[in-house]
């Protein structure tokens, strides 16, 4: 295995390209060219392709047959569709869970969000931690397929929000609103979760239209 420092080189290349995507260095729909990336990252073509495959699997990039990989398109239709899929998945994943189980599962990321708010943390960190709260909710379902599908949607949505992060936090809510969300269960939770995610979607779409 190629190693640089402690991290395997594939992991290092993956996190570097992921960081560039999150930093907004590539425009939506942009194809990533292999040649310059191989030079910039100082890795083999094989390593780069493995890293890009990982990012496709994570939802940070999409592959177009014969054309290569590109940053997913973050237009209004895509955001609307992503959020519809998240609503369906999150409601199904949390159905039947008790508020005690959900509160316990989300305790750590909610505390992290509260700490970020106190520090006035940056917008990317805010959006990322919001995503982690929802991932923790879905992980409570213990369904590997729901968890995987949800992680993919969450990452794609994060990429779609990147151009807006400069305008301020575009997370789905503050620590308090998440704490009250996970204190619900059954139909009340399903209804509140739908409203929570629809509100986020509307806020993103509103910012995009400016
Ligand atoms: Zn949220």
TrEMBL record:
GO terms for molecular function: DNA binding; DNA-binding transcription factor activity. SMART domains: HTH_GNTR. CDD domains: WHTH_GntR (cd07377). It comes from the Bacteria. Pfam families: GntR. The keyword Mitochondrion does not apply. InterPro entries: TF_FadR/GntR_C (IPR008920), Tscrpt_reg_HTH_GntR (IPR000524), WH-like_DNA-bd_sf (IPR036388), WH_DNA-bd_sf (IPR036390). Keywords: DNA-binding, Transcription, Transcription regulation. Gene3D superfamilies: Winged helix-like DNA-binding domain superfamily/Winged helix DNA-binding domain. PANTHER family: TRANSCRIPTIONAL REGULATOR, GNTR FAMILY (PTHR43537), UXU OPERON TRANSCRIPTIONAL REGULATOR (PTHR43537:SF5). This is GntR family transcriptional regulator. It comes from Pseudoclavibacter terrae.
């Amino acid at each position: 295995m190629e190693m640089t420092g402690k991290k395997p080189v594939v992991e290092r290349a993956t996190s570097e390209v992921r960081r560039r995507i999150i930093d907004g260095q590539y425009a939506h729909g942009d194809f990533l060219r292999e040649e310059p990336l191989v030079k910039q990252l100082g890795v083999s073509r094989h390593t780069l392709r493995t890293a890009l495959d990982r990012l496709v699997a994570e939802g940070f990039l999409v592959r177009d047959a014969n054309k290569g990989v590109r940053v997913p398109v973050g237009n209004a239709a895509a955001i609307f569709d992503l959020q519809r899929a998240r609503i369906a998945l999150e409601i199904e994943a949390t159905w039947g869970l008790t508020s005690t189980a959900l509160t316990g599962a989300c305790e750590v990321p909610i505390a992290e969000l509260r700490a970020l708010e106190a520090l006035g943390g940056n917008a990317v960190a805010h959006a990322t931690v919001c995503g982690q709260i929802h991932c923790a909710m879905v992980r409570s379902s213990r369904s590997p397929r729901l968890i995987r599908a949800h992680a993919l949607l969450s990452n794609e949505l994060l990429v779609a929000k990147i151009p807006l992060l400069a305008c301020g936090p575009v997370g789905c809510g503050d620590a308090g609103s998440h704490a009250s969300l996970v204190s619900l269960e059954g139909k009340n939770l399903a209804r509140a979760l739908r409203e929570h995610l629809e509100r986020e979607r509307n806020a993103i779409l509103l910012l995009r239209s400016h």
